[in-house]
Specification:
The complex is a heterotrimer of chains A (348), B (518) and C (485).
Chain A lengths: L13 E3 L2 E6 L22 H8 L6 H15 L20 H14 L4 H9 L12 H6 L16 H12 L53 H5 L18 H9 L1 H17 L3 H13 L5 H17 L16 H16 L1 H4 L2
Antiparallel strand pairs in A: 1-2
Chain B lengths: L19 H13 L14 H10 L37 E8 L12 H5 L7 H4 L20 E4 L4 E4 L12 E8 L5 H10 L9 H9 L9 E6 L23 E3 L17 H22 L2 H24 L6 H7 L8 H13 L4 E7 L15 H22 L6 E6 L3 E6 L12 E4 L3 E7 L7 E2 L1 E2 L6 E3 L2 E2 H12 L7 E4 L2 E4 L15
Parallel strand pairs in B: 1-7, 1-8, 4-12, 4-15, 5-6, 5-7
Antiparallel strand pairs in B: 2-3, 4-11, 8-11, 9-10, 13-14, 16-17
Chain C lengths: L1 H30 L9 H7 L2 H4 L1 H17 L11 H25 L5 H22 L10 H25 L10 H7 L16 H13 L18 H6 L16 H6 L19 H12 L33 H8 L3 H10 L4 E3 L7 E4 L9 H5 L8 E5 L10 H5 L6 E3 L7 H4 L10 E3 L10 H5 L6 E3 L19 E2 L1
Parallel strand pairs in C: 2-3, 3-4, 4-5, 5-6, 6-7
Antiparallel strand pairs in C: 1-2
Helix pairs in contact in C: 1-5, 1-6, 2-5, 4-5, 4-7, 5-6, 6-7, 9-12
The chains are: A mainly alpha (348), B alpha/beta (518), C mainly alpha (485).
Chain lengths: 348, 518, 485
């Protein structure tokens, strides 16, 4: 998309209250808000000037905003909580000097290198703190604004899907290409003005990363919406996480996750011959750590119960291991579902 | 891993219920945690303190609220839909909104215009056309009288056409507003205006506001349920029941009267309830240990949500299962299980209302009677739509009344704008079928139930039914009135976003239509 | 000499002839004054001609000074020759008018100072008219007794006529539409003067009194008391008239006042009389509601629900929102707050305050279903009197909870849908005198409970679908129209 040359530009007028039917003259020229450093007088009023203006040394906001956003990605809440609003109606920074220093550091020392910034942030002592909290600490600083403990937040909508796929080994690493249609229940997707349909993909497209999912504003992908993804109507800089029963229903019953659980169960069954071994493998895949004794005992108990209860031959996948019965498969799938639904799995 | 915290539980939580100890833990966690930015409320008033308030609210001392403070909608984070009392005592406890998507023709249903009938077929006067924007009319259209005969009914003397014979029984309970007005002449923005208070995307819907302000009675069911029929979604799409900038927990949940009522409600095939219970118990136990280790209140909330999901599976399935109603009741509604129909949805709506759902919205698509084809023709497709909704709407009102629920339920029926007294002539040609174009200048809705004065008509249009001559009611006035019936000052049900105290009635002044209040 | 004396004698006889009726009328006024009672129809009939007849002597009397004055000049001196004739005629006419006036006053139920002043003024001026006639030849007397008498006569005519106008048209008929400039100069007050000490914060003062003042007080006021009834003050209303009380507190239909204003306008007893238009339906409704609520002088202005909107106000009623005084609310809830908190902890999500500004409670146990039993309900006995809305639909409560429910004396809404509650409990609900809505849908209630329920004074809706009460069964009068099947 090239910028139009100035002679081909259209006249831009002000719309009264956004109503395109009432325009107020005179014609407007491109400019920046008066609060900020002015555009250079001799520069043409085009996008290049604007781009340079964003990164000029006198411009305080760009680096600050950028740094704040990366901070939010890692720590859960930005130094300025309102990522989208650094103005007087937004929140004040929780650590002003830190923000200033990071902004200047990012701009001057790191020369806008995002990777370098992220490396610095994740290797910092603050990030590497344990997330363990004490009652006093939680009471004093419930939202961890003062960062006396490591960050802890729920996975974003896309991460929930991607994690399930990675843990189960189903994730397809194909990059790029047109958007795909992972499974969605019938009758949910509705295109009002044309007859396009949602057709569940088969093959690797079924297991692509969440970011490749086909998005339609009037009919967003349900699992993502339920996990607070943007519905793409308005620009959303910051998702407000919620914790609802509908999310529980997604991760337990959505066919995508059921399929992932089956595949995860298969991996677990293949990994070892003993139940405990299989359970430990599952934990390593999902939680990236070892199970505690209590957790192991709980899952083991569940497995036994599930195996006793299950009606054989229900899940129609081929057995994954030598001598693995349908019942064992079924029971292990139940355990896999549990693993994917643990708070520890859904929180990072 | 060492558990330093002595709160490790030595016995398992009881199956099926969050135990009393769990509840107290949840409460303690909740009391300590103000983990939701959107539950922070501004204390004090004024622009300056607004800024201070939003950023420092978590440090605010309790008891600082002045008499003119905003209302506090904070809740225990583990139950964001828990009930809150209304601002002042109100009769209405729940709303059932029946939206006829496409804009039903008021001139064929409720507006008796004998003068228009007299002038049927004549050219439309130029004064009607000057300065107006039409969706499809061009040139000089002809006036079109009502396609159906009208008569008066009941003590109230309401006029009604012959298309809604079952609803006639209830006309004395109904309050008509014949002078509704909107600025939007196309479906999606008009529907957005009706349901979110703004013609642009991104604003919370009425049901979301109500959930935010009042919560819901039954925590085992979604508090705001949407049911669709007529074959298509309304033009405004999911935004009509979205939560906008309110926390997404308040969004409408689209349920289906056939198939899975709530998405992902059914366990995967082969999972028995007892197995599911065992799985939940395992999750609970391990999460308890996680909480013991890390002390994150979100963990406790998550435990509670999983329990609620389990209960919802049972309750939602039961609520939406119309097989449980006797044949006689189903016959009264004209409902046939297994279909997706307005009649089924009405019956489900009644069941949901009985079970404490706060806001139930039904959309029936297909009222856009332009006359471009048989489905849109006033004498064909329109008659079908009327048949589809008449019996079940009347049955719904009867059922509610019989069960004494009409006195605390507000039922609203209407579209998003009206239709013109001129016959539509697309591209300036006479069309094969008879239809009308959009008329945002005047339309009719009706209300019934608690808080509404029955048997009256508010507002009046001219003899052609084209413009309002008396008591115009803007959409925001209707919203203000409905919120008043629910017990709120519409200025006070607000939420801080983008530097404004946002409210459903948006920024223009709105008036509570006291004339229709009981 | 004999001619002179016979002339004098003739004149004397004539003078006596003129004077005698005047004296008779005076005697009538003294011994048979108007006393506010109505009498024979024929007397009322002829009395009605008084306003007609009175204009003739007025014109004549006013003509006389003009003739005298103008006749003082040489050119018109002949005019003075008619004075005697005119005065005699005027006396005769005035006497006639006075007699007719007496008939009207005596038989038409008039009383009051206005009437008294008018009739005495009238008879006095008749006498003065005769006096003028008698003194007509004394024109050239050194003391201008004729002139003085004539002047007094004219003054009396003006004054009496003014009083007569007030009687017919109202005490303020001249000042009502006086331009404000003139009003200011003359120091005349506008608005109600008589009986203005009415408390406008009461229903009577704000809504009922203005109706009477504009529509009734002209004939039933301080200046004119037809049937001896005054409607310009509360005491007057309740005191009644010559036929006894016109208002029976609590019983609009038995009140004569209400009866009369709701008669057809061609009925003899219809009020307001005199061809005036009937009271509007809103006004009638207001009076009906007021009498029905006890015809009180002190009842608060908005105490009566559903009163028609004040027709005087041009603007439509707008809502005003009261700020919630949190401190006051907390104080109001203080007594029960600990009990409520405890119950909320034990039974989450079913008990809460009715609104943010209220200390009343709403109890909704329906969501617990059959898990909620009598034992659970018993816990709420401590706050029973604060519960205004209670919903026990589909719960497991039984008649054992009857006393707990009966203790909820301030209940407005009670829902017992699909419970096992029987007539035994319903018979004990007579104490719930605030109850407006009772829902018995799907219970085993029978028609035997209806008499007890019918005694609930404020009940507006009774839902009896799917009970053992058959739809056609006879229903006590007070429940007519309130049952919903």
């Amino acid at each position: 998309m090239l910028e139009q040359p100035s002679y081909a530009g259209r006249e831009t007028l002000e719309f009264e209250r956004g109503n395109f039917l009432t325009k107020i003259g005179p014609a407007l020229t491109p400019d920046v808000p008066g609060l900020f450093p002015r555009l250079p007088d001799d520069a043409p009023r085009n996008r290049l000037t604007l781009a340079k203006w964003f990164f000029s040394p006198q411009q305080p906001l760009t680096a600050r905003t950028a740094v704040n956003r990366y901070w939010e990605q890692l720590f859960g809440t930005g130094i300025v909580e309102t990522l989208e609003n650094f103005g007087s109606m937004g929140e004040r920074p929780s650590h002003l000097e830190l923000l200033d220093w990071l902004a200047l550091h990012f701009e001057n020392d790191l020369h806008w290198d995002m990777k370098a910034l992220l490396r610095e942030l994740v290797t910092s002592a603050t990030y590497r703190q344990s997330a363990k909290s004490t009652p006093t600490l939680t009471e004093k600083d419930p939202r961890n604004r003062l960062l006396a403990r490591g960050p802890q937040q729920r996975l974003s909508a896309e991460m929930v899907r991607d994690q399930a796929l990675i843990a189960s080994g189903l994730l397809s690493d194909i990059m790029g290409g047109p958007p795909v249609m992972p499974p969605q229940p019938e009758g949910v997707w509705n295109s009002v003005y044309n007859d396009s349909k949602w057709v569940d993909a088969k093959g690797p497209n079924r297991y692509r990363r969440a970011i490749y999912t086909y998005i339609k504003r009037t009919s967003g992908y349900p699992s993502f919406l339920i996990f607070d993804a943007s519905d793409h109507d308005v620009s959303l800089a910051r998702r407000i996480p919620t914790n609802t029963p509908l999310q529980a229903l997604v991760t337990m019953n959505d066919p995508v996750y059921v399929e992932a659980s089956e595949a995860l169960a298969g991996r677990m069954l293949k990994a070892s011959d003993t139940t405990d071994g299989r359970l430990r493998c599952g934990a390593r895949l999902v939680l990236s750590r070892e199970l505690t004794d209590y957790e192991l005992a709980t899952l083991h108990e569940l497995f036994e119960k599930a195996r006793a209860e299950s009606r054989a031959g229900v899940f129609e996948r081929p057995a994954y291991g030598r001598g693995v019965s349908g019942k064992e498969q079924h029971a292990m799938t139940a355990v896999a579902i549990v693993l994917l639904n643990l708070d520890a799995a859904l929180t990072r | 891993m060492v558990m330093a915290n002595s709160r490790v539980r030595s016995k398992d939580p009881s199956a099926g219920e969050v135990g009393a100890e769990m509840r107290s833990q949840v409460r303690m966690a909740a009391l300590r945690a103000q983990t939701r930015r959107h539950f922070l409320r501004t204390l004090g008033s004024g622009l300056g303190t607004l800024f201070v308030g939003t950023s420092l609210a978590q440090y605010a001392k309790p008891g600082k609220e002045s008499a003119s403070a905003a209302l506090d909608f904070r809740r225990d984070p583990s139950s964001p839909l828990s009930e809150l009392p209304p601002q002042f005592a109100a009769k209405v406890r729940r709303v059932i909104y029946l939206h006829m998507a496409g804009a039903p023709s008021q001139l064929e249903l409720f507006e008796h215009k004998p003068d228009l009938k007299r002038l049927d077929g004549q050219d439309c006067p130029a004064s009607f056309l000057a300065g107006k924007r039409f969706a499809f009319i061009s040139g000089i259209p002809k006036l079109l009288g009502s396609q159906y005969p009208f008569h008066q009914v009941g003590e109230s003397g309401h006029w009604i056409s012959d298309r809604l014979p079952h609803l006639e029984r209830h006309l004395d309970d109904i309050c008509f507003i014949k002078s509704m007005r909107t600025e939007q002449f196309n479906h999606a923005p008009a529907q957005l205006l009706v349901h979110t208070g703004n013609a642009r995307l991104g604003y919370p819907s009425f049901g979301s506001w109500v959930l935010y302000g009042l919560g819901t009675e039954n925590q085992n069911l979604p508090g705001f349920i949407v049911l669709l029929s007529g074959g298509k979604s309304p033009d405004g799409g999911k935004q009509l029941w979205s939560s906008g900038f309110l926390p997404s927990v308040y969004q409408g949940v689209q349920c289906r009267s056939h198939g899975e009522p709530v998405l992902y409600l059914d366990d995967p095939p082969g999972t028995s309830r007892s197995l599911r219970r065992d799985m939940l118990d395992a999750i609970d136990k391990i999460n308890q240990q996680t909480y013991a280790a890390f002390g994150n209140p979100e963990t406790i909330t998550r435990i509670a949500q999983y329990e609620m999901a389990f209960r919802m599976q049972m309750d939602a399935t039961d609520a939406m299962d119309i097989h449980k109603e006797p044949d006689s009741v189903r016959a009264r509604y004209g409902s046939k299980p297994g279909e997706s129909s307005f009649a089924n949805n009405c019956l489900v709506a009644r069941r949901l209302a009985e079970r404490g759902v706060r806001f139930i919205q039904l959309y029936h698509w297909g009222w856009d009677s332009h006359g471009a084809d048989a489905k849109e023709a006033l004498n064909l497709g329109f008659a079908d739509r009327c048949r589809e909704v008449d019996q079940s709407t009347a049955a719904l009102l009867s059922d509610l009344k019989e069960r004494g629920m009409l006195e605390d339920t507000l039922v609203v029926w209407g579209g998003e704008f009206g239709r013109t007294p001129m016959r539509e002539n697309r591209n300036g040609q006479e069309m094969k079928y008879v239809g009308r174009d959009h008329n945002p200048g005047a339309f009719t809705i009706w209300l019934a139930g608690g808080g509404v004065k029955p048997g009256i008509t508010h507002g009046q249009t001219d003899e052609m039914g084209y413009e309002i001559v008396k008591d115009p009611v803007e959409i925001r006035d209707l919203h203000a009135t409905m919120l008043y019936m629910l017990g709120f000052d519409h200025h006070k049900l607000n939420y801080s976003f983008q530097g404004l105290e946002q409210k459903l009635t948006s920024v223009k002044p709105a008036r509570v239509v006291t004339e229709i209040l009981a | 000499m004999r001619r002179l004396s016979s002339r004098i004698l003739r004149e004397f006889r004539f003078g006596l002839f003129l004077l005698l009726p005047i004296l008779i009328v005076m005697a009538l006024l003294v011994f048979l004054p108007p006393d506010g009672n109505e009498r024979a129809e024929w007397m009322q009939f002829i009395g009605r001609f008084h306003p007609l007849a009175v204009h003739f002597p007025i014109a004549l009397v006013l003509l006389v000074p003009i003739l005298e004055l103008v006749g003082g000049s040489a050119r018109f001196s002949y005019l003075r020759l008619s004075t005697g004739f005119l005065l005699g005629l005027a006396t005769f006419a005035a006497t006639t008018a006075a007699i007719l006036g007496w008939c009207l006053a005596r038989s038409g139920g008039y009383s009051g100072p206005l009437v008294t002043q008018h009739l005495w003024g009238g008879i006095l001026l008749t006498f003065f008219c005769w006096l003028c006639w008698a003194l007509r030849t004394r024109r050239s007397h050194p003391v201008p007794i004729f002139g003085i008498t004539l002047a007094m006569l004219v003054a009396l005519v003006a004054w009496t006529g003014y009083r007569g106008g007030q009687l017919a048209l109202g005490a303020d008929h001249l000042t009502e539409h006086m331009p404000s400039g003139l009003r200011h100069v003359l120091g005349v007050q506008d608005g109600f003067t008589a009986s203005s000490k009415v408390d406008a914060s009461t229903f009577y003062g704000a809504r009922v009194h203005p109706i009477f003042a504009t529509r009734c007080v002209n004939c039933h006021g301080p200046d004119k008391r037809k049937a001896n009834l005054r409607l310009d003050s509360y005491r007057g209303i309740m005191g009644g008239g010559k036929d006894g009380p016109v208002v029976q507190p609590g019983n609009a239909l038995g009140s004569d006042l209400f009866r009369r204003i709701t008669l057809p306008s061609n009925h003899d007893d219809f009020m307001p009389k005199g061809g005036k238009r009937a009271l509007s339906s809103d006004e009638v409704k207001l009076i009906e509601l007021w009498i029905g609520a006890g015809a009180s002088e002190t009842l608060a202005k908005d105490a009566i629900k559903d009163a028609p909107a004040d027709s005087g106000a041009t603007a439509v009623r707008e809502v005003t929102f009261q700020e919630i005084d949190l401190a006051a609310v907390t104080r109001g809830r203080a007594a029960i707050a600990p009990a409520v908190a405890q119950l909320q902890k034990r039974f989450p999500n079913i008990l809460d305050y009715e609104s943010r500004g209220s200390a009343d409670l709403r109890l909704n146990a329906a969501i617990l279903g059959t898990r909620f039993s009598d034992n659970d309900l018993a816990n709420f006995a401590t706050v029973a009197e604060h519960i205004t809305v209670a919903d026990f639909s589909r719960t497991g409560i039984t008649d054992r909870s009857a006393s707990t429910i009966a203790a909820m004396k301030r209940l407005r809404v009670l829902r017992l849908m699909s419970t096992g509650i029987t007539d035994a409990t319903l018979l004990r609900l007579g104490v719930l005198d605030q109850l407006e809505s009772l829902n018995l849908f799907g219970t085993p209630a029978t028609a035997a409970s209806l008499p007890a329920i019918s005694r609930l004074p404020r009940l507006a809706h009774l839902y009896v679908g799917q009970t053992s009460i058959p739809p056609g069964s006879p229903v006590p009068d007070s429940l007519a129209g309130k049952l919903v099947f």
